[in-house]
């Protein structure tokens, strides 16, 4: 084979490789665009549904709890990631209409207002207990307390141990049935509605919330 034929063959190979690389580049780019398009079509915004919402007492903010629908196109079959993060809690400024996410998790209860600057909600913690989160809606500071439900023993009725958000322990009779908050004379109260072993109401347990402590 003479030099001219060799040059022609080399040129043909080079052109073939160049065309192949261009084709592969275009194909890869188109796949990335397709992938990005799928992600865009299945963002949490399109997958989430409102489970609960409530205005603050001053009407300035709204707390919203979203449930996230599973979609393999978005989660890419990462089931653990989904089940760990299938509830989103956010706060919406009613004047600016801007919304900020506060908390992402799973197995949590609906949020309650505690005054106009904090929310609280329960979480799963195991047998005979409940986690209870406190979240500042402005700086997203999050604190976790625990309610432990103690069984009846020899000379002691059932009671609740509350390890609060500020490293204090409280013990009180009965088990917590429901929880809520109230503002009375500009003072903020965390309120537990209590029940006995048979599920009958036995009154309420009230705590004064000052922003950095709870007081009986």
On the 0-100 scale, what is the average pLDDT?
79
Structural class: alpha+beta
Number of helices: 4
SSE sequence, one letter per element: HHEEHHEEEEEEEEEEEE
State the major sheet: 6 strands, antiparallel
Overall domain count:
2
Distance between the termini: 100 Å
Q: Compute the CA-based radius of gyration.
A: 28 Å
List the strand order in the largest sheet. Answer: 5-6-7-8-9-10
Described by the principal axes of the CA atoms, the overall outline is: globular
Summary, kept brief:
It contains four helices and 14 strands. It is of the alpha+beta class. It has two domains: 1-41; 42-215, no CATH class.
Can you offer a commentary on this structure?
The strands form three sheets. Strands 5-6-7-8-9-10 form a six-stranded antiparallel sheet, with no helix packed on it. Strands 1-2-3-4 form a four-stranded antiparallel sheet. It has four helices and 14 strands. The protein is α+β, with helices and mostly antiparallel strands and 216 residues long. The chain has helices at residues 3-41, 44-47, 72-75, 79-84, and strands at residues 48-55, 61-68, 87-93, 99-105, 112-114, 118-124, 129-136, 142-150, 159-163, 169-173, 175-184, 187-195, 201-209, 214-215. It folds into two domains: 1-41; 42-215, no CATH class. Strand 12 (187-195) and strand 13 (201-209) form a beta hairpin.
